[in-house]
Design brief:
With 168 residues, the protein is mainly α. It contains seven helices and two strands, in the order ααααββααα. A two-stranded antiparallel ribbon has the order 1-2.
């Protein structure tokens, strides 16, 4: 097993710093439209992820608590940025759709997201970014294994380990 010099605390701290920096980047938009960063996050998630239009998916993919998401969705609906609708094939679910009023917020939000991404990746080469994307893909696969209850690779034996290395 390889030695890991990155602690869980460092990983969590980095993820929190990423979120904090993103919220700083979108704060001018939040101030302009009088919405919280979380509310803008929800609008941007819905606009940028077609097919993921329920509160449950927002919670799942963004790692947010249902009560917080529900609070912000209610406010976005009340202020006319979102509307609720039915989900075809499952009347128990509620689809969230951005309204025309949200269009300018979404356009400016996407612009700010691009600027944030450019600033975040300053000094990285295309090769660095490609390597980073590969690392994220490996993290995603490993997270899925962890959440599925799969045993760590070192417990499985050399044959599966060799297969794992080829499949990455």
């Amino acid at each position: 097993m390889q030695e890991i010099n990155l602690t869980a605390a460092e990983m969590f701290a980095n993820a929190a710093r990423f979120t904090d920096a993103y919220h700083v980047a979108i704060q001018p938009l939040c101030d302009k439209v009088h919405l919280t960063p979380m509310a803008v996050d929800i609008l941007m998630f819905l606009a940028n992820n077609p097919g993921h239009e329920t509160a449950r998916e927002i919670c799942r993919y963004r790692g947010l608590k249902p009560g917080i998401v529900s609070f912000h969705i209610d406010r976005l609906v009340q202020e006319g940025y979102l509307e609720r609708g039915s989900v075809l094939g499952d009347r128990r679910k509620t689809a969230l759709r951005c309204t025309r009023k949200a269009a300018d917020v979404i356009e400016e939000g996407r612009r700010l997201q691009k600027v944030f991404a450019l600033r975040l990746t300053e000094g990285m080469t295309p090769e660095d970014l490609a390597h980073f994307r590969r690392c994220i893909a490996i993290f995603d696969a490993n997270i899925a294994r962890i959440q599925g209850g799969e045993r760590p690779r070192e417990e499985k034996g050399a044959e599966e380990d060799a297969y794992y290395r080829r499949s990455i």
